[in-house]
Specification:
This protein has about 350 residues and is of the alpha/beta class. The protein has two domains: about 150 residues, Nucleotidyltransferase, domain 5 (2-Layer Sandwich); about 180 residues, Nucleotidyltransferase, domain 5, CATH 3.30.420. The protein contains 13 helices and eleven strands. The chain has a six-stranded mixed beta sheet with strand order 3-2-1-4-6-5. A five-stranded mixed beta sheet has the order 9-8-7-10-11, with helices on both faces. α3 packs antiparallel against α5, α10 packs across α11 and α12 packs across α13. It is globular, with a radius of gyration of 19 Å.
């Protein structure tokens, strides 16, 4: 069984092939390149060699849906996976919004994969899982996109393997520190039981996070691309985390306040998901979890709650992001491969 996972990140699309529980092929493609030439991703998929299933970029997720079940791939991608309107995409693209480029890329890729008749399936986000109680879903939408769900799946496998425990004994909180968003996902007894997606965790690198309802009504008008504004990068007027942290370490405003707001948001999110004494560990993932300076700041706060470590990789993985590996695991399990028992457990 060879399963390929596609993780659509704000910065890059990562592709991973898993065979017999190991990563055997990896590739990363710049998101802007994919948006401008979606065929480049299909070419990369073909370069990976024959695969039995592809877990495609799934955005806000769907119940497992296969390529042949899709009638209109453009509307499926835009309105179902991305919960977006055509005019939002067009407007954001005209403004050159980086965040909208990933929406544009996903939409085009879904169409290309459909045209290519490849064995693609699309997978759920956290809120669609039956393991999260309905009362936690009230007035929620973003409890963790499909890529966050996929990272959590990798986390269940990782903790089970690391400590030699059954899936039913796995317990952790996953903290994603991404280029666009931060997120926190709670796993108990090896299943996802709660989550705060990127628009529900205060002040990401790009995103504003959750918006005070009073601010929302005062703003009068919001557009889709507004979710990619108001974060640390915009507050500081700096395009990279390294520059932001340089300012923070020098005690310069507004970087000092912006970084503290982000760290506070991550800490509060984890505390809101944690039952006292019940969290085995906190797992860090995402692009900025690999920044030593930011990681140190995050660990200083979160280690008071539970032990903190990086989310582990599958055997054979060298460069791919955690979510891409998770996508491949889900695809493999859906198709009855070596991760079938894991996916059946997580439902």
């Amino acid at each position: 069984m060879r399963a390929l996972g596609v993780d659509p990140g704000t910065r890059s699309f990562d592709l991973v092939v898993v065979e017999d529980g190991r990563v055997v092929w990896e590739r990363s493609i710049d998101t802007v390149r994919v948006a401008e030439n979606p065929a480049s991703l299909v070419e990369a998929v073909e370069a990976a060699g024959p695969v039995d299933i592809i877990a495609g970029p799934s955005g806000y997720g769907v119940p497992v849906t296969f390529n042949q079940e899709i009638v209109d791939p453009y509307r499926f991608a835009l309105e179902v996976l991305l919960l977006t309107r055509r005019e939002d995409l067009t407007f954001g693209a005209k403004l050159g919004e980086l965040g909208i480029r990933v929406y544009e890329a996903i939409t085009k890729v879904v169409v290309e994969l459909w045209r290519s008749r490849l064995p693609v399936c699309y997978i759920p986000s956290c809120i669609l899982l039956p393991t999260i109680p309905p009362y936690r879903k009230v007035n929620k939408l973003d409890m963790g996109t499909a890529d966050k769900m996929a990272s959590a799946v990798l986390g269940v496998f990782d903790q089970s393997e690391r400590y030699g425990i059954n899936y039913g004994d796995v317990n952790f909180i996953l903290v994603e520190l991404g280029f666009g968003y931060n997120a926190a996902i709670s796993v108990d007894k090896g299943v996802i039981v709660d989550g705060l997606g990127g628009t529900l965790v205060q002040t990401g690198f790009l995103t504003i996070g959750p918006i005070d309802a009073e601010i929302a009504v005062m703003g009068r008008k919001w557009v889709r691309s507004d979710v990619f504004h108001g974060g640390v990068a915009e507050i500081c007027g700096k395009p990279s985390m390294d520059e932001v942290l340089d300012g923070y370490e020098r005690g310069e405003e507004p970087c000092l306040t912006a970084v503290e707001a982000m760290l506070d948001g991550v800490e509060k999110s984890v505390k809101s998901l944690a039952s006292p004494g019940a969290v085995r560990e906190i797992l860090l993932s995402g692009r900025y979890s690999r920044s030593p300076r930011l990681r140190r700041l995050v660990e200083e706060r979160l280690s008071k709650i539970a032990p903190v470590r990086s989310l582990g990789n599958l055997p054979g993985a060298e460069a791919s992001k955690e979510a891409a590996q998770g996508y491949a695991i889900v695809g493999d399990g859906v198709a009855g491969g070596s991760f079938r028992n894991l996916i059946e457990h997580m439902r």
